Automatic annotation (TrEMBL):
PANTHER family: COTS-RELATED PROTEIN (PTHR39179:SF3), SPORE COAT PROTEIN I (PTHR39179). Pfam families: APH. InterPro entries: Aminoglycoside_PTrfase, CotS-like, Kinase-like_dom_sf, Spore_coat_YsxE. GO terms for cellular component: endospore-forming forespore. This is Spore coat protein YsxE. Gene3D superfamilies: 3.90.1200.10, Phosphorylase Kinase, domain 1. Residues 39-257 form the Aminoglycoside phosphotransferase domain. Keywords: Capsid protein, Virion. It comes from Evansella caseinilytica.
Length: 339
């Protein structure tokens, strides 16, 4: 149940916790609340009543199953986890200091991979579904990808007919055929997923965090990670959450296919993906949506980049695309043709 308050937001919300702020700081999207009873993080969101109810269900479930790698959400003095003020929803957490240096050698990506696997393992369930539902999911994604491919082909045709190509356009055309090859690889893995799922006639769902990234994880001084922001949590295939996490890893720092394979092996040490789930995970990763979004932004001129900045950004996406291709081939080695 959500509490409705009719006073000024921060003070009215904190009153529900019997907290009286001494100082309030804005840190990212949260308020850091200093009180005589400690330091807290107050998050303001736009969750609907239905979304807030699901969020509370997720938090309570994680507490019930003993998943300890999360920043806890604190109940009000009335036992509620979410306080509503008008169209806004608020929830309170203890303030966790996020460390970037640790007492022991720690790689945050390794920790996150293992802890996400533990979350998935604790919430795993097997569900049956009809072949019609499977084919509908397959068809929707194929249709979306085909539309994106067509948009990029139209853009390529448009700029090929110009007398002068900008550096960004030239870079895009240079790597466009490779991106189409990645689209085909994504479709191949998606088809492999569907064929494998049809044979099983069931699928695994887990509680997906929905936004597994470094900015949604706090680390203590010992290198233990604590997830927060479960507002987009959903029951879905583990492939979805793992793909989202890997996309974040791939954009956050330099990496190679060996490191990518190491992260996947760490995840699978705690929660092994089925073969069809691996294909679905790879299809999500391989489709070059990130590169195409960069082209979208350039065409719409929504972001105020200089031409050099736009080219640099695109080249980074191309580099990531090529690394993902090598990563794909390390996860699914191609058989050498026989002489």
């Amino acid at each position: 149940m959500n509490i409705h308050v009719q006073q000024k937001p921060i003070g009215a919300v904190l009153f529900q916790y019997d907290l009286y702020p001494e100082t309030i700081e804005t840190v990212g999207k949260v308020k850091k609340i200093h009180t005589g009873n400690g330091i807290f993080a107050l998050k303001e969101t736009k969750m609907s009543a239905e979304e807030a109810d699901w969020f509370v269900h997720v938090i309570r479930r994680l507490e019930r199953i003993g998943f300890h790698y999360l920043v806890p959400v604190l109940p009000t003095k009335y036992g509620d986890y979410v306080v509503r003020y008008g169209e806004q929803a608020y929830y309170l957490m203890p303030w966790y200091t996020d460390h970037t240096e640790f007492r022991y050698p720690v790689q945050p990506e390794e920790v996150m991979a293992e802890e996400l696997a533990k979350l998935h393992g604790l919430t795993e369930r097997t569900q049956e579904y009809s072949e019609e539902v499977l084919e509908e999911s397959y068809g929707v994604l194929k249709k979306r990808w085909a539309h994106r491919r067509l948009e990029m082909e139209r853009y390529a045709d448009q700029i090929e007919g110009t007398v002068y190509l900008s550096p960004f356009q030239l870079t895009f055309l240079t790597h466009f055929q490779r991106s189409l090859h990645m689209v085909e690889e994504a479709e191949r893995h998606l088809t492999s997923w569907m064929e494998g799922a049809k044979q099983k006639k069931n699928f695994r769902s887990v509680l997906c965090h929905g936004r597994p990234s470094r900015k949604h994880t706090c680390f203590d001084q010992y290198g233990t990670g604590y997830f927060f922001n479960f507002e987009k949590a959903v029951l879905d295939t583990p492939a979805r959450d793992v793909a989202l996490m890997f996309r974040h890893f791939f954009q956050s720092r330099p990496w190679d296919e060996h490191e990518g394979l190491h992260w996947l092996q760490l995840y699978e040490k705690h929660f092994a993906l089925f073969d069809e789930e691996r294909h679905l995970f790879m299809s999500y990763l391989v489709f070059p949506e990130s590169l195409y979004l960069t082209v979208d932004n350039y065409m719409k001129k929504e972001k105020q980049y200089t031409e050099l900045e736009a080219v640099t950004h695109l080249e980074r996406k191309v580099l990531t695309m090529n690394r993902i291709y090598r990563f794909m081939n390390s996860v699914f080695p191609r058989e050498e043709p026989r002489a």
